[in-house]
Design the sequence.
RNA sequence: UCCUCAGUAGCUCAAUGGUAGAGCAUUCGGCUGUUAACCGAAGGGUUCCAGGUUCGAGUCCUGGCUGAGGAGCCA
């Protein structure tokens, strides 16, 4: 029995006979020579088979292979300058697990395809080199997020996905039947995080988030993953620094561990290497001046649109922190700036290269009376917030936190045009399958 | 919800209102170092749907469906 080896490890077996388990990626043919390309989820290697060197039935079975047919292949690993990975496999035998028939071939060919076709075949599209690279970077970012908070003494506290009402009231929610009642899919773990922070000091939640907005842009999903830290006694400045350190940490980790994937994606490494703290910090008022100077129509009191964000991101090679927006455009739980009560102690982080807002957060309103007033003003159902008001009744303290959308971060770090490629099975307006 | 664009072979796309085509994929044949291999041949069509204009509609008109990009809103 020859050892079963992963393609990414074939270099450790140069000169040896090994068995690979995987799929046929492509087959090139030149007379009595065959060049089957194998993939196994860890890499791709080209096999070489000379007709005179193997039994006729082995040659014929390889010659008849179709794209994505599953197989086990045995051969000798040989270093070769001509091979993209530096190694080739001199194939001696192939065990075909499933031969895909020519009448119903694998749909995704090594040529160009349109978005709709690829999205309809997302379950197969994931096998492509590019999608595998993105999955790898996504995995690395998620692991790095966990490492970052764990190393800083945060406790992961999971927040519920079924919620009784809106966290922020304004956004559209997905409604679901909950026995005799109605429930909503969470749009943020924020309020529960505040409860957890009062219990453990530093907490974060990390899970799926749902938004029923009919947004149809390259930055929107209806189901996406969000990590939300919340820190007792932290002020706005503390949380801005935390976000800055987190993002720099994530970029550094991907640069350290996922170079091959970034190369596959043709990501400009130099741009990522510039993402070092400190990031530029702009007040809303300062950002507004810059935007108006660049010809934006935005007036004081309005929130930034996608075009405004892109314009701002073009002013820096690093992410930008924009803080102290007018309270009127922000959620009810944002603390007012004591120096200028019309402003909220909040912060958005805008990614470079037009990838949009990746972080939103700030200092929470710790005062009971003011919070009650805000809930009333915005016509929020007081009863469902009673437990939240308890947090202000029993030992309220200043505290701050933020939410970071994983898909936008993955999209930015991978340099993707659209967030739909950053999540294995994207859920979007008009896209619920596969 | 609104604006713009698109829908033709399995896929990516051509086709002035006048016989519906190419490349890839598939099948067959050729080639002993191919790199989205190449060369030759074959099969493959409800031109998104329903009406309308016209001698004649893939093409023009009306309505609908589906998709893409964007706006608003957001991470």
Sequence:
């Amino acid at each position: 029995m020859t050892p079963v080896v992963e393609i990414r490890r074939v270099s450790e077996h140069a000169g040896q006979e090994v068995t690979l388990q995987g799929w046929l990626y492509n087959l090139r043919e030149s007379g009595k020579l065959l060049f089957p390309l194998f993939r196994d989820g860890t890499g791709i290697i080209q096999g070489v088979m000379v007709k005179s060197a193997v039994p006729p039935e082995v040659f014929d079975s390889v010659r008849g292979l179709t794209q994505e047919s599953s197989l086990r292949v045995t051969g000798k690993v040989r270093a070769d300058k001509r091979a993209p990975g530096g190694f080739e496999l001199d194939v001696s035998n192939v065990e075909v697990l499933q031969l895909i028939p020519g009448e119903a071939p694998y749909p995704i060919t090594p040529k160009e395809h349109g978005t709709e076709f690829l999205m309809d075949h997302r379950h197969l599209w994931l096998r492509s080199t590019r999608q595998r690279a993105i999955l790898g970077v996504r995995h690395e970012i998620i692991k790095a997020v966990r490492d970052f908070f764990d190393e800083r003494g945060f406790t992961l506290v999971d927040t519920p996905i079924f919620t009784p009402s809106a966290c922020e009231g304004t956004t559209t929610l997905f409604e679901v039947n909950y026995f005799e009642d109605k429930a909503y899919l969470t749009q943020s773990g924020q309020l529960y995080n505040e409860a957890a922070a009062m219990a453990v000091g530093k907490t974060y939640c990390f899970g799926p988030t749902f938004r029923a907005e009919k947004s149809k842009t390259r930055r929107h999903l209806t189901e996406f993953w969000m990590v939300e830290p919340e820190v007792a006694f932290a002020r706005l400045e503390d949380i801005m620094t935390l976000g800055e350190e987190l993002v720099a940490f994530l970029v550094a980790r991907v640069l350290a561990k996922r170079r091959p994937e970034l190369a596959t994606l043709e990501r400009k490494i130099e741009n990522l290497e510039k993402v070092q703290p400190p990031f530029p910090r702009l007040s809303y008022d300062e950002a507004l001046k810059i935007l108006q100077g660049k010809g934006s129509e935005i007036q004081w009191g309005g929130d930034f649109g996608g075009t405004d964000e892109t314009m701002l991101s073009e002013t820096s090679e690093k992410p930008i922190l924009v803080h102290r927006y007018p309270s009127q455009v922000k959620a009810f739980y944002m603390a007012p700036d004591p120096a200028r009560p019309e402003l909220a102690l909040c912060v958005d982080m805008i990614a470079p290269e037009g990838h949009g807002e990746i972080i939103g957060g700030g200092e929470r309103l710790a005062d009971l009376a003011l919070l009650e007033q805000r809930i009333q003003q915005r016509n929020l159902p007081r009863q469902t917030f009673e437990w939240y008001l308890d947090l202000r009744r029993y030992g309220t303290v200043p505290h701050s936190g933020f939410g970071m959308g994983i898909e936008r971060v993955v999209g930015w770090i991978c340099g993707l045009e659209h967030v739909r490629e950053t999540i294995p099975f994207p859920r979007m307006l008009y896209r619920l399958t596969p």
